[in-house]
Amino acid sequence: MTVRPKMQVLRLTDSAAAQVRQLMDATETPIVGLRVGVKKGGCAGMAYTVDYATEVRPGEEVVEQGGAKVVIEPGAIMFLLGAEMDYRTEKLSAQFVFNNPNETASCGCGESVALAPAEGAVAA
Question: Which of 38, 76, 92, 95 lies at a C-alpha separation of 20 to 30 Å from 51?
Fold first, then answer.
């Protein structure tokens, strides 16, 4: 029997991995990484969330890449399959940006997106 390798839910760019590592090293309270999720809100319907993760909770996926660790909430997994997390610094902002093939629309202000579950994803 051949076991197929598990698909990584989210891929980090080198820039995102470097920023996650920097945030992990700079916190006063030890963290295991950054927690990524999605929540209902905004004019397009959903928004990405990024917060400190002090622990890995049951059902969460862990992505480790380039010394960085990102913990993905169970409810976000089906919306993030195949997505890439980047970190961009521009003239007036610096932020994590998600390049997600599951986005069906986004609002003009860039704060929210419409997401569909990845093809073949099963709700957790």
Answer: 92
Give the start-end residues of each E strand in 3-101.
10-12, 33-40, 46-53, 61-65, 68-72, 83-89, 94-99
For strand 61-65 and strand 83-89, is the pairing parallel, antiparallel, or unpaired?
Answer: unpaired
Calculate the average pLDDT of the chain. 85
Q: 10-24, 31-45, 64-78 — which is least confidently predicted?
A: 31-45
Beta-carbon contacts of 91 under 8 Å, excluding residues fewer than 6 positions away, are none
DSSP state of 6: P
Smallest CA-to-CA distance from 77 within 20, 16, 123 is with 123
Class of domain 10-115: mainly beta
Beta bridge partners of 64: 69
Two tokens, residue 64: 């480790």
Contact 103, 32 (CB under 8 A): no
Other Cβ atoms within 10 Å of 113 Cβ, number: 21
Q: What are phi and psi of 75, to 5 degrees?
A: -70, -15
